[in-house]
Amino acid sequence: MSTRKERADAIRVLSIDAIDKAKSGHPGAPLGMADFAEVLWSDFLKHNPADPQWPDRDRFVLSNGHASMLLYSLLHLTGYDLSIEDLKQFRQPGSKTPGHPEYGHTPGVETTTGPLGQGVANAVGMALAERMMAARFNRPDFPVVDHYTYATVGDGCLMEGISHEACSLAGTLRLGKLVVLYDDNGISIDGPVDGWFRDNTPKRFESYGWGVWSVDGHDAEAVRRAIAEARADASRPSLICCKTTIGCGAPNAAGKSSCHGSPLGSEEILNTRRTLGWANEEPFAVPEDVYRSFDARAKGAESEDAWRKLFDAYAKQYPELAAEFSRRTAGELPDGFDAGLEAILKEMAAQDKPVATRKASGMVLEKLVELLPELAGGSCDLSGSNNTKTKSSIAVTAENYGGNYIEYGVREFAMAAIMSGIALHKGFIPYGGTFLVFSDYMRSALRSASLMGIRSIFVLTHDSIGVGEDGPTHQPIEHLAALRVMPLLEVWRPADDLETAVAWGEALRRQGATCLALSRQGLPPLKADPSSRADMRRGGYVVYEPEGGIDAIAVASGSEVHLALEAAKELSKRGHRVRVVSMPCMDRFEAQDPAYQARVLPEAVTARLVIEAAAPYLWRCVAGPKGRIMSINRYGCSGPGKALFERFGFTVENAVRNVLEMLGDV
After folding, report:
1. Choosing from 165, 374, 407, 412, which is the catalytic residue?
2. Which residues, in sequence order, are CB contacts of 327 under 8 Å at separation 6+?
């Protein structure tokens, strides 16, 4: 049986071998973290390499994702489907071992960690989801949800502001099954961090309400005791500060920033192998006794088998709960969802009074929470403005994890990343609200959610200069364009209550991130033909068709669709036939087949006017070379919303003038 040191050194040599072969990577952190990582994975982590997705496994998040070879080495050594050949392909195109861990790409990787700090926020979401699922499904003698979330962080993670946002909330919610190990090596890319990072980290986390331990990160027994004590503290999340030496084992590179992000080089690798006692081993060679003692497959299968037997007994006593648990962890919508959504659509179609789409969203949510108990809502201190809190919403607190609404406080970045953790955990569909203009705060986490293709729904209200008196700091201009260019993210900007309901339905049906951009001001119902409802789901559709042909097309989204309709009516008085197209989701429309796109926007009709109270970028492909765009490409100002639309040219008169000029009728 191998020793702890031999197992930790196996992590070290595999890491530096792979980084050296790639001629790229970060050897310092894997060398320094190997000792405490070995303790966690050998003695505590509950997982099954043969089934990386079984529901009651512990979660492990490498927030300092540049240390990816540490994780890949652990996954390989413990028996996951990650071979030596995969390690040899580190950082190569299409390999299972990319430069930073990627969810859905490598077995055993729980989340995509790249930008520092987001991983620990994801871990907070996972730990919160575990507590919320346990509150819903556990019964006496049947703890079917009972696992820990572990994360590692480095100095960089703790310097990023998101770590404060997320860890502060974790302490408030007393997430006692969250254990974070801090690789406290005092070095970042630019050198020793005491020139720019002198926080008293233990006191900082104590102020959040965390339990804090400080240990020598290379003392396996001290680490083991700290983890055991942290696990036993059910009332607080835990931070274990592991004092380590970056590049530990590399005789000339240890303790230096040079080993943070650059391969050690062949000479230093040879010296490291000699220092560790591996001088005679070939690259990527691991002794069989190390493999045997690290192999977690038998232990993991035993743990999973015990849980499945428990769940089978649970299913006999609580069949409905067991079926609901299985459905939700599989990410499946309930059988009655389509019929329930259809009823909501009919109700919204029957509305006959102007309604702000943010309010329409709240009306839809009131019905959706009845259909989908897995909805886990929230807002960044804007529940009343975002209309995200329903009559049946119950706040999640440290005293009641059985709620369905998370009061995130003013923490937009953390909210988005925590939502990702909740979605990744499985069992919930998270949605969270703030103002569209504050999507800037969330952008990096929105990008990560999009990259992972996870179902998270962002309710972004106050979508234009229609915000009004709060002024330019709160009036989004470039934000719709900025979100639309993000791959795999769908942005819906509905024009009335029915389109809002359709947008919600599409967000719930897809496996991916969705933004709903919603108005502050009331918008009248479009009264679209019921037959067009299916086309609404395609992102763009004809909302008004003139008789006798088409001279021009007006395309708009959100509140500006109503402006386009009014302009079309005025133009008809002058004998011009103008089709009006509502395009609530440009992303979805662009994904349609060319025949449908051509049916909505015939190439022969070149007189096209696009209207949107936002930056014009991306609309040129819709307007075409001869079309025009009514937009705003400057910051707004303070004043009533209606007055601002007039001030910036969003008027019927301006729209009519643009179409007449394109048609030569001036």
Report:
1. 412
2. 334
**CB neighbour list of residue 575: distance below 8 Å, 6 or more residues apart:** none
Question: For position 10, what pLDDT does the model report?
Answer: 97
Query: Which amino acid type is present at position 7?
Result: R
Dihedrals phi, psi of 215, to nearest 5 degrees: -140, 165
Contacts of 203 (CB under 8 A, 6+ apart): none
Known catalytic residue at 399: no
Look-up: residue for tokens 């339990």? 211
pLDDT at 1: 78
* Positions of E strands within 36-145: 59-62
Listing DSSP states for 425-459 in one string gives HSS-EEEEEEEGGGHHHHHHHHHHHHHHT---EEE
Short-list 630, 636, 160, CA closest to 436: 636
pLDDT in tens, 180-228: 999 999 999 999 999 999 999 999 999 999 999 999 999 999 999 999 9
How many residues in total does the chain contain? 666
Cβ(457)–Cβ(449) under 8 Å? no
Tell me the backbone φ, ψ of residue 350, rounded to 5 degrees: -85, -10
CA distance 652 to 562: 10
CA 273/CA 282 separation, integer angstroms: 10
Which H or E run includes 611? strand 608-611
Measured distance CA(565)–CA(543) in Å, rounded:
9
Of 409, 339, 439, 325, the C-alpha closest to 373 is: 325
Q: What residues have CB less than 8 Å from 621, skipping those under 6 apart?
A: none
Contacts with 450 (C-beta within 8 Å, 6 or more apart), sequence order: 486, 487, 488, 489, 512, 513
Question: Would you give the DSSP letter of residue 193?
Answer: G
* Spatial CA neighbour of 69 closest among 124, 107, 25, 114: 25
- Alpha-carbon distance 97 to 87, whole Å? 6
Beta strands in 102-172, from DSSP E residues, in sequence order: 149-154
In sequence order, the 6+-apart residues with CB closer than 8 A to the CB of 234 are 176, 177
- One-letter amino acid identity for 168? S
User: Which DSSP helix (H) or strand (E) runs through 128?
Assistant: helix 118-137
3-state secondary structure of 521: coil
Of 59, 54, 299, 64, give the one whose Cα is nearest residue 179.
59
Nearest C-alpha neighbor of 421 from the set 51, 112, 135:
112
Q: Which tokens sit at 394?
A: 């119950």
Tell me if 409 sits within 8 A of 381, measured CB to CB: yes
Give the pLDDT of residue 107: 98
Instruction: Name the residue among 441, 455, 435, 571 with its Cα closest to residue 507.
Output: 455
- Kindly give the interhelix angle for 337-349 and 497-509, rounded to the nearest 10 degrees: 160
Determine the 3-state secondary structure of 337 from DSSP. helix
Look up residue 516 and give its two tokens: 């709903």
pLDDT at 589: 98
Per the structure block, which two tokens stand in for 490?
A: 């769908």
Instruction: Report the distance separating Cα 215 and Cα 36, nearest Å.
Output: 10
The answer to whether the CB of 486 falls within 8 A of the CB of 545 is: no
Sign of CA dihedral 76, 81, 85, 90: negative
Low pLDDT (below 70) residues in the chain: none
What single letter denotes the amino acid at residue 73? S
Who contacts 280 (Cβ-Cβ below 8 Å, separation ≥6)?
none
In angstroms, the Cα distances linking 309 to 142, 147, 315, 320 are 11, 16, 10, 17
For residues 534-564, b (16+ Cβ closer than 10 Å) or e, as one string?
A: ebbebbbbbbbebeeebbbbbbbbbbbbbbb
**Rg from Cα positions in the chain:** 28
